[in-house]
């Protein structure tokens, strides 16, 4: 299996796989935070519906619930915006740089009602 992790080097360079799949412990190591804190953040994010995991790979049963063992880039980015750590700061800057470089612009579209057309 190819490397599907996000790697932040000591000089702040970020390497992101096209198909990121990371476990809770790998995400905790990435942001240099505790495993239990990472797990709680992931459960909160899943509960809010912001991001989810990859159920196509292995899963874990906790009580009556089934949780995925691997999470993608969407979850990693969501966690980066909830955590205060040096690597989370680097990840946030990288993400914001990527979306601004891509030229993503936001358009506000207002419904126009033209009485002359009716």
Task: Provide structural commentary.
The strands form 2 sheets. Strands 1-2 form a two-stranded antiparallel ribbon. Strands 3-4 form a two-stranded antiparallel sheet. With 118 residues, the protein is an alpha+beta fold. 20% of the residues are buried. The protein has one domain (6-116). The chain is globular and about 45 Å long. The chain has helices at 24-31, 35-48, 73-80, 86-101; strands spanning 6-8, 14-16, 59-62, 65-68. This is KilA-N DNA-binding domain-containing protein. It comes from Dysgonomonas mossii DSM 22836.
Q: Total number of helical segments? A: 4
Whole-number mean pLDDT: 84
Percent of residues in β-strands: 5-15%
State the shape: globular
Question: Which bin fits the share of residues in helices?
Answer: 25-40%
Largest sheet, spatial ordering of strands:
1-2
Coarse structural class = alpha+beta
Weakly predicted, low-confidence segments: none
Major sheet attributes:
2 strands, antiparallel
Seen as an oligomer or otherwise, the chain set is single chain
Radius of gyration over C-alpha positions, nearest whole angstrom: 18 Å
Write down the secondary-structure element order. EEHHEEHH
Organism: Dysgonomonas mossii DSM 22836
Protein name: KilA-N DNA-binding domain-containing protein
